Amino acid sequence: MARTVILGNGGFAKILASMTGDDCLDKGDPVPDDAEIVIGVGDVGLRKNLFLEYRERVNWVIAGTAIYEDELDCGDLEDYWGLQLMAGAIIQPGVTFGENVLINFGALIDHDCNIGDHCVISPGAILCGNVTLGEGCFVGAGAIIIQGVTLDAETFVPAGTLVVASDDFRKPQRVVRGGRGTAFTVGSPGPEPFLPEATTR
């Protein structure tokens, strides 16, 4: 059996190593010629470059994921080269993936979504039905993309964003109470400064 190594030595690589028992390699470490590869980075561009360099040796990872799709069978993952489905992710019927896709912890991919090559879906993100992501998209933690939205290649969706159209990204607003009676809306320039009333003696 060939040795498997994880390319990367950051937080995501450490999580993979704790699940698989494989070794993590730093940027300058030599990659053994006979080793199979697991990509252990979340940066879209770096993932793509590593995948293209080592494509024939890249493995997939499935970790405690709920898959509700007969066609996405764990025995047929060569059709989804380099796919990584992390624990708690839920994949509904009709979802299609490109190559080298990372669906991170607790993400929800609803029915009939199409996810392009080299996309990264961060923890807790939600793609409602019929969402299409072009190649190399990044969806931040807790972001929500509503049904039917199509995003162009290399679109970056910040964490916590609500995407209601391909050109309409919204940050949820909420009032936050700070110390000394300050209040501000998240997403605004910030709290009004607290200025105590002048006193005289």
Written description of the protein model:
The protein has 2 helices and 22 strands. With 201 residues, the chain is mostly beta strands. The chain folds into 2 domains: 4-57, Rossmann fold (3-Layer(aba) Sandwich); 62-170, Hexapeptide repeat proteins (UDP N-Acetylglucosamine Acyltransferase, domain 1), CATH 2.160.10. It has a 7-stranded mixed beta sheet, with no helix packed on it. A 6-stranded parallel beta sheet has the order 4-6-9-12-15-18, with no helix packed on it.
Count of alpha/pi helices: 2
- Share of residues in helices: 10-25%
Topology pattern, helix = H, strand = E: EHEEHEEEEEEEEEEEEEEEEEEE
Shape: globular
Euclidean distance between termini CA atoms = 84 Å
Structural class comes to: mainly beta
**DSSP summary, beta strand count:** 22
Q: Provide the β-strand percentage band.
A: 25-35%
- The CATH first-level class of the largest domain comes to Mainly Beta
Instruction: Give unreliable regions as ranges.
Output: 188-201
Q: Mean of the pLDDT scores?
A: 83
Strand numbers in spatial order across the main sheet: 5-7-10-13-16-19-20
Radius of gyration from the alpha-carbon trace, in angstroms: 21 Å
CATH topology name of the largest domain, in short, is UDP N-Acetylglucosamine Acyltransferase, domain 1
Q: CATH superfamily membership of the largest domain, which one?
A: Hexapeptide repeat proteins
Please indicate the count of domains.
2
**The CATH architecture of the largest domain:** 3 Solenoid
Biggest sheet details: 7 strands, mixed
